[in-house]
Amino acid sequence: MQMSYRVICIYLILMSCIACQSVHYNDTKYADKRVILSNTALKKLFIFGEPDKNQIKQMLASHDFSSLERIYADIFELYKKDVQYENFLRTAYTIFNPDNVKIEDLDLWVAQTSTYIAYAARGAYKTTAGYWERGGKYISETPKYKIDKMQRLHEEAATDLQIALSKNPALMSAYQDLIDIARASTMTFTAKQILKKAESHDNRTFFVRYAYMRSMLPRWGGSYQEMSKYANEAIQYVNLNPRLWTLQGEVSADMADTYESEGNYELAVESYNKALKFGDRISWLKKRANCYSKLGKRHLAAVDANRVLYYSPNDMIARALTVSNNPLSLKYNLKDDTYVSPKVKELNIQSYAVLNVDLQVNWLNARGGGQSTTVKNNNIAKIQRMLIGLGYGCVERSTITALVDDQKLSLSDLTTEKAKQIGRLLNVDAVIIAKIPSMGKNHALNTYYEDIEIKAISVANGHVIWNSLLKGSVDAGQDVYGHMVVLDSIESKLYDLLQTKLKLAI
After folding, report:
1. Residue 450: beta bridge partners?
2. DSSP SS3 for 138
3. Are the C-beta atoms of 59 and 67 separated by less than 8 Å?
4. Dihedral (C-alpha) 357, 363, 369, 371: value to the nearest 10 degrees?
């Protein structure tokens, strides 16, 4: 049967779009942007925090089911509006486990209300209880009666979860539990079937896809090839959820976990490096920090640990991996020339947007592997932390990127007028423009050095609120640290110095 001319044209257009999309996703500049958006989304998870576990436990124990369901319904509404609440929603259901609640209370909840929330809560409880009954040993070392107990509990959990989904098909946490059940127990459904149902109701989900990828690990009967193939398929939805980009690092991260468990820390670090090219994960950063610590590279462990603390300031493991405020034990030579407008208090600045850090370092810009982008993004993050530390609001990087793309603007070669325009669109009081004119190693003086110029501009009138020329250097006698680690440390010290000066002046 011959195809009509119109059908042929449509087919060719579709094939062209697919081809363009493939090239677009593999473009280095595009990939760097996706890492930024993914890391911004990760930070958002920690800003949202977690549900009040004690309040939920008390409400369940006192059988205040109506109040409990209002909390969970509100959380679900938040998730519907913003996919980054998915982790918050997931955490709310993982509270229901044998350590926290009684099955009798869950049974009464289901009997009295029969809501999707009650069924999902009991399903989550029995999913976890099943795993706990089995224990953590290899299947060959686990008694049959333990496997049978897990199977029974998982069958009961599956029934509850499927009832919950019949009442609310968009509850991603229930799909995640069903995938975990399909991975461990013999079920009438497969992990892939559950995944497809979840995706048909909400293509934004990250955690269901993450659970599915874990079900494809070689030790669960899958393969790295399958995992990589699915990760590449999933990123077509990255515009809906930036965190999907990190799925491409799952294979390298699992290989790193294996190396770490075997004590091969050098290879583990190499594999964690590959995984982290696709964006930050708290677990990957902490594990790499631990490997660095085992290798005696405490300065590198501290860099990773401090990165974790940027996302999660109260992470005790990360705090344990940090050393002193000067982890490299270097003597810093720091200078700043800072001007603050005498009218700064009259301007009543409350919020900032860090628009750009122009990296004018030829040797670094010429390097591949996205290192220049990493330096630029790290500086933006440090400036944001400095501003937040001073008590100002700071616009998320993803918001700035989205606005610039939508308005077809550029963050390069910003004039004061252009910066004001973007600031007005972002509805902030002030914007930051910075540049790094030089950094590297002075071989004649045998020092590492970095210069940073940073300027804050009022959106209202375009006047300079404050500006600063920062200069830092250290003796290069301890090359064991690696030059990029030393330069990163100089930057941190310079921003700390600037924060102190601004705190005194503003």
Report:
1. 439, 472
2. coil
3. yes
4. -40
Q: Which residues contact 15 (CB under 8 A, 6 or more apart)?
A: none
Distance CA 175, CA 194 (A): 6
Closest by alpha carbon to 249, among 226, 275, 269? Answer: 275
33: left (phi over 0), alpha (psi -120 to 50) or beta: alpha
Q: What is d(CA 283, CA 289) in angstroms, rounded to the nearest whole number?
A: 10
Q: Are residues 125 and 56 in contact, defined by beta-carbon separation less than 8 angstroms?
A: no
Q: Quote the CA–CA distance of 71 and 282 in Å, as a whole number.
A: 27
Distance CA 83, CA 240 (A): 8
Domain 255-321 sits in CATH 3.30.1360.130: no
- Residue 441 bridge partners (DSSP): 448
- Compute the chain's Rg from CA coordinates: 26
Q: What is the pLDDT of residues 131-183, one digit of tens each?
A: 888 876 667 777 888 899 999 999 999 999 999 999 999 999 999 999 999 99
> How would you write 17-76 as a 3-class SS string?
HHHHHHHHHHCHHHHHHHHHHHHHHHHHHHHHCCCCHHHHHHHHHCCCHHHHHHHHHHHH
**All structural domains of the chain with their residue ranges:** 49-215, 255-321, 332-505
Distance CA 289, CA 297 (A): 9
Q: At what angle do helices 282-294 and 298-311 cross, to 10 degrees?
A: 160
Q: What pLDDT is stored for residue 412 in this prediction?
A: 86
Q: What is the pLDDT of residues 323-347, one digit of tens each?
A: 544 455 678 899 999 999 988 888 8
Quick: pLDDT tens for 63-109: 999 999 999 999 999 999 999 999 999 999 999 999 889 999 999 99
**Angle, CA 249 vertex, CA 26 and CA 294 arms, to 5°:** 135
Distance CA 147, CA 133 (A): 8
Q: Match domain 332-505 to its CATH number in 3.40.718.10, 3.90.79.10, 3.40.50.10610, 3.40.50.300.
A: 3.40.50.10610
- Residue 5 pLDDT exceeds 50: no
Question: How is residue 450 written in tokens?
Answer: 């970095």
| Bridge partners, residue 357, by sequence | 434
Q: Which pLDDT band, with edges at 50, 70 and 90, does 417 fall under?
A: very high
